[in-house]
């Protein structure tokens, strides 16, 4: 109850006028005291309506879906739909050019899979909503506002995944992107940052990654570093120390320890066996 009071105080203290930016980006808060019907609604924009309190119904050609506090529904460009808001429904909306939805389509964003989704009602989410509202009302920079829009939509996507899980096509996309990042030896992001860059918390990212690859993200990155080490030992004249630093190890001892963990051989032993032509099969996976 105290939590809800804090949320209501934070939201209702905001200036509740509708914000316009060149008629292309709009956001604001709306509360209806009586029942409101929006029949056969259509828009050229992509919009998200987030329910802060209250409840209602969303209807389109696929059927009727109820929503309540912590849910959002989406208005897809040129798609006819109807919405009923029951008395006392308080909501935030953000409407953006349809190009934003096209970008989400290119990334196979799971938020587009269902028009109505439960994303939860956390203080962090409400705070992000308030931040975007303030930005729309105070900033004259379209770029700044678009960054704020991206941050809020990313948070909605993450919250949706936390509630519904990750579907197959989106899993494949996550893994492809993650593999590109994790193979990059110059990438300074830690694994939590990698997960956030993909719109996931670390636990969900680790579970999905291991489910599809058989390895945790950390083990996958370790394997790739060692595989690069194997390549350099075979195909270059670099010393073990030079290879260790090229692969961003802080010292040769850490490199040697991890190399042996993956291959079963130290870099020195590996080189000797390779030079004798007696390598056999060198494992490059750890469980």
Description:
The protein is 49% helix and 20% strand. The two termini are 46 Å apart. Mean pLDDT is 80; it is low at 1-23 and 281-287. It has 11 helices and 10 strands. The radius of gyration is 25 Å and the shape is elongated. The longest helix is centred in the middle third of the chain and has 23 residues, at 142-164. The protein has a 6-stranded antiparallel beta sheet. Strands 3-8-5-6 form a 4-stranded antiparallel beta sheet, with no helix packed on it. Strand 5 and strand 6 form a beta hairpin.
The major beta sheet can be summarized as: 6 strands, antiparallel
- Say how many strands there are: 10
Q: Please, how many helices? A: 11
Number of domains: 3
What oligomerization state is this entry in?
single chain
Q: Helicity range of the residues?
A: 40-55%
Main-sheet strand order equals 1-2-9-4-7-10
Rg result: 25 Å
CATH class of the largest domain equals Mainly Beta
Q: What's the N-to-C terminus distance? A: 46 Å
Query: Low-confidence spans: pLDDT under 50, at least 5 residues?
Result: 1-23, 281-287
CATH superfamily of the largest domain: Regulatory protein AraC
Proper CATH architecture of the largest domain: Sandwich
Q: Looking at the structure, what is the overall shape?
A: elongated
At the fold tier of CATH, the topology name of the largest domain is Jelly Rolls
